[in-house]
Amino acid sequence: MKWSIPPKIVYSICVSLIFVLPALIGYALRIRVFKASYLAIGVYGLVVLIFIVLQLVFATLNRIIAIRFRRKTKQVDSEKTPECYKVGLAVVGYRESPELFSQCLMSIKQLEYPHPLKIVAVIDGDEQEDYEMAHIFEKEFQDSEVTAIPYLLSEATEQQKLDFTELCKSSAQISCYVQPHRGKRHAMYTAFRFLLNSDCEAVMTTDSDTKFDSKAIMELERALHWYGNIGASAGDVRIWNTGNLLSFMASLRYWMAFNIERAAQSFNRCVTCVSGPMGMYKASALEEVLEKWIKQSFLGMECTYGDDRHLTNCVLQKGHQVVYTHLAFCETETPEKFLRWFKQQTRWSKSFYRELLWNAKSIHKHSPWMAAELFYQGLYPFILLFSIFFTLWSRIPLALAAWLISLVAIGSIKTLYALVVSRDFKFLLFPIYSLYYLLGLVPAKLWALVSMWDVGWGTSARSASELKKESQILLKLKEALPVIFWWLLILCGVVFNIIMFTLHPPPLPYDVSSPTTIVFYPNPDQIGAESFST
C-alpha cells in the first residue's frame, strides 16, 4: 500500500497523541492508576515513565547499531583501502578566546582521515579585533592563506558571485576568510559555498571553541552509510570546563541529551538537531537546502540563532534521515556563570519553539517517534509549571516535599542508565540538576516564549576586547530580571505554604486530590488514615 501524505500525517499525529492525550486527560481528571504508601502514581506520571523507558530502549539499540556497523566496516577496511567521502571542514567564529580557538585548530590538525581534508575557516567580522582570530589561524596552519572578502556571499550580486567562483578555483587546501560581521549563519553559508564548490561529498561543521577526538570525523562519515537515505549525522558533544557546580551539572545534562534523547531519535532516524560544535552533512543534501536555510525569517525578522536546528529541519523536510553516533565525540565550553547559562538556555528554547513550525511540515515523513518527542519536549515544562504553582500554594508542605522527591525520582531513572552505560559514578549527582531545571530552565522556556520577538544572540563573544564590555551592572541587572522575578515567585510560594499551614492547618484528611507532581503526588486516603491512627 502506497501512502499519500494526509494518511501519514494522521497516523503520526495519532500515534504521538497516544503519549500525550492520556497524560493530559489523566492530569485534568485526577485519575489514579494505583495507590502505594504516601504516593500514588497518576496517569501522566505513568505515561512519562513509559516514554522514558522507551527512550532508554531506543538509545541502547542505537548504540548497538553504531558498534556493529563499525566492526563490520573495520573488517572490510582491513582487506582493502576504505572508500570514504571527500570531506570538507567548515570552521566559523566571532571574536573567540585566543586560547580556545588555538586549541580548536590544534585538535583539527590531529584528526585522522584516509584522505586530506579541505579546511575553510570564516571569521565573522572584518574589523581590527576580528583579525586576532585570523592571525591565530595563520600561526597554527603556516601553509594557509588569509583572504578578506569585502562583501557577504549570502547577499552577493551576480558579479560578486562570479568573483567568488574565481576565488574558489584559486583557494588553497587550507584557507581562512574574513568577511563583514553579520552573524554565525552568514559565516557558515560562506564556508559551505567554498566547500561545495570544491567538490566535497560531505561537509563537517564546527564552532571555534570545539576540541575534537582524533577519530571524530571518521566515525561521523561512517554513520552516513548506516542507511541509504541519511542526509546528516551528529556526534556526542561533551563539556571540558567542569570546574564549578553549574558547568559540571551541564556536562551531565549534555550526556543525557546526546546519549539518551538524541540516541533514541537516531534509532528512529529522526534526530531533530545536529549540534553546531560537530555534525556532518552529505553535500547533496546540503546543496538542496542551503538557499532556503540562509533566508529563514520569523515574525518578519531575519533569524540569527538556531542555525543548527533549522539546518537539520531543512534536511528532514526533504525526507532525508538524520542519525547520531556516540562513537564520534568532541568537547566544547559551557557557561560557568548562571546568568550566561540562563541566556544560552533562553536562546536554545527560542529556537526550539520557533522550529516547531518547521517540524510540523516534516513529521509525516518520519517516524511517529519524532512527533511524540516534540509533543513531550514542548508540553512537559508547562505541565511542570502548573504543578509547581499548585504545589507552592496548596498549603500542605508534604505536597511540596513529595513534589521535590518526584523530580529526583525522574532524574534517578536516567541516572541509573548513565551509571550502567558509562560506568562513571559522577552521574550519581545528576538528580541535583533538578534544582537548575526548576530555578533556571523553566523560567528560560517561559521567557523564550515571551521574548520571541528578540532575535539577538543573547550571549556575547569571548575575545579580550569583548569581555571588557561585560562589566555593565545595569545591563546585567536587566538581563537578570526574568530570573529574579521567577525566584521571587518561588520564594513567596514556599513562605506562603509554610506560614498558612502553620497558622491554619487544613483538617484531616488533607485534601490533595489534585496531582501536585509530575509523576507522584500524596495519596490523601493513606495520609488521612495514618494520621488518624496516630
Automatic annotation (TrEMBL):
GO molecular function, one term: hyaluronan synthase activity
Subcellular location: Cell membrane
Natural source organism: Mortierella isabellina
Superkingdom in the source lineage: Eukaryota
SUPFAM superfamilies named in the record: Nucleotide-diphospho-sugar transferases
InterPro entries reported for this sequence: Nucleotide-diphossugar_trans
Keyword Iron on entry: no
Alphabetized UniProt keyword annotations: Cell membrane, Glycosyltransferase, Membrane, Transferase, Transmembrane, Transmembrane helix
The protein, known as: Hyaluronan synthase
